[in-house]
Amino acid sequence: MNRLDTLTSWHSDWSGLRVAVLGLGVTGFAAADTLAELGADVLVVASQAPDERARLLDVIGARLVQSDLTEVPGELIGQRPEVLIASPGFHPDHPLLLWAEAEGIPVWGDIELAWRLRDKVGEPAEWILVTGTNGKTTTVQLTATILAAAGHRVAPCGNIGIPVLDAIRDPQGWDVLVVELSSYQLHHVKRSGVGSLVPYSSVCLNLADDHIDWHGSYEAYGEAKGTVYENTKVACVYNKADGATEMMVRDADVQEGARAIGFDLGVPGPSDFGIVDGILVDRAFLEERFDSALELITIDELALLGLDAPHVVSNILAASALARSFGVAPEVIRIALAGFSLDPHRIEVVATADEIRWIDDSKATNPHAADASLKAFGSVVWLVGGLLKGVDIDDLVKRHAPRLRGAIIIGADRTELRDAFARHAPELRVFEIDADDTEQVMPEAVRRAAELAEAGDVVLLAPAAASMDQFSSYAERGSKFQNAVREFLGGGADDDESASQPNA
Question: What is the pTM of this model?
Fold first, then answer.
């Protein structure tokens, strides 16, 4: 038997296992720390090594090789690893991954490693998996909030910020992990065989063009996302408004007894979640689902909470389905939602002044997310642009041109957006921000937006692009926008929270 096939538990003998870890970000360090604790021979290979993490590697007994990673370091060849742990950002055709494939060295991601080690603290937690092009973090947080309100020990983790490897080692233990998974992580998740993940329930919220430059094609991106449903035990939750997610469920090899549960904003069928007369309802997890439904919460109640934007309502329905699959009562869902708020930079109202609302949706890092954000508002001055990641922006501009008062294009390369507006909105007033100094991008964008906006308009930062061409993250981009808005408006903003909630 292959030694790796015996390593399916924290209590297996990992001592001396030769492991290479690619990358020293949050995920890479968590993998190195975990494996060093197990007694493995750990070599970390990274192009960048933050000083604090590099020092900690010495403390835990792991070795570090810094390299530009354009070729295989001699130290890696000398170690001859038995398994290679790839951090999520490593492209499938990266030279080190191609070398591992040629040498017959298995490649794992942090998710497979964590699944094999999930029994460190008490009874292993169940895993609920969440992926999709957009809405992952909100849905994970919603699901975890609902499960916690029901009294379960729950940890939101994965791509949301807390590595799964850290969650499984928490000494208090958990009943359930709600795991956000990116397509990068799912690329390295095995569909079958030793170490294969067996989720309790799972959802792919939607599928749209994104990360095509990483996966190579839309089909490869979709195939990675579909992995989330493999081996699911209880509920495969899918979006009825997105046929690609239903096909993923149909194609998945699930456990006997697992159910397909649909959700959308329409009237639900007998195994679905949806909306009837302004009420979110469950027609899946009740005995008489063909003749009745369970009320969860009303759209009017969500409006008072600022949670009534259509894409947020969709996320609530998906999270409710996952929580109901775990046995949470409908009344607990209503109580949990009453205390929930969206993350910063997700349709966050910055200010209202002169009947103009300024909204930060910097987290809309692809066209699909920006589309959902734009749909929530009537007349918009749109701040758009950044690193497009190989996706087509043309359809988005064409679809929303009629609702635009004007547009402000940011980003290092503005050519595609400039051409799209010229084709589909030639009369629209469009400004480009070509500031060389990143610190000046948002102040200039805000000033130009103020020139365009009129009473009743929304000035919306929904870039439809990643931020790394000009900013370190979507959060920095959003924060700089918010600071620029507040500085521009001075004391003229309305702090009345009820006046500044977005409308569906």
Answer: 0.80
